[in-house]
């Protein structure tokens, strides 16, 4: 359901930007670092929206990459802990009952 709302909001935003851009077709002067150019305002608006979308998208990709890397390290740690638990339960089962009793007794004495 959340994904559907996101899609609907994206479509609504796109329509608003398109309508706003089509209404503003007058030429404007744009100053770049290396010079000036006269462009239709519609291109400036659409270019700005595109650049903003690319920046937000790249930030999202970066965040997903970090989360996947973190998840992979946590899965490795979880696997190591499971192996350690299995080893400890196997060695615990191999000990005779008398040695377990002695181990507990010496632990509670000190």
Automatic annotation (TrEMBL):
Q: Which UniProt keywords apply?
A: Cell membrane, Membrane, Transmembrane, Transmembrane helix
Q: Which InterPro entries match?
A: LapA_dom
> Can you cite an annotated GO cellular component?
plasma membrane
Describe the location of the Lipopolysaccharide assembly protein A domain by residue ranges. Answer: 24-84
The transmembrane residues are: 41-62
Short name of one Pfam family: LapA_dom
**UniProt-annotated stretches for the region Disordered:** 89-110
| Skewed-composition ranges (Basic and acidic residues) | 96-110
Question: In its UniProt entry, what is this protein called?
Answer: DUF1049 domain-containing protein
Q: Which organism is it from?
A: Metabacillus lacus
């Amino acid at each position: 359901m959340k994904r559907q709302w996101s899609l609907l909001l994206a479509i609504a935003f796109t329509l608003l930007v398109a309508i706003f851009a089509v209404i503003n077709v007058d030429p404007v002067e744009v100053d770049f670092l290396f010079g000036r150019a006269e462009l239709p305002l519609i291109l400036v608006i659409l270019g700005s929206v595109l650049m903003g979308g690319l920046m937000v998208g790249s930030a999202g990709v970066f965040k997903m990459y970090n989360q996947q890397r973190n998840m992979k390290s946590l899965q490795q740690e979880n696997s190591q802990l499971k192996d350690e638990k299995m080893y400890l339960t196997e060695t615990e089962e191999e000990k005779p009952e008398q040695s377990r009793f002695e181990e507990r007794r010496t632990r509670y004495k000190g």
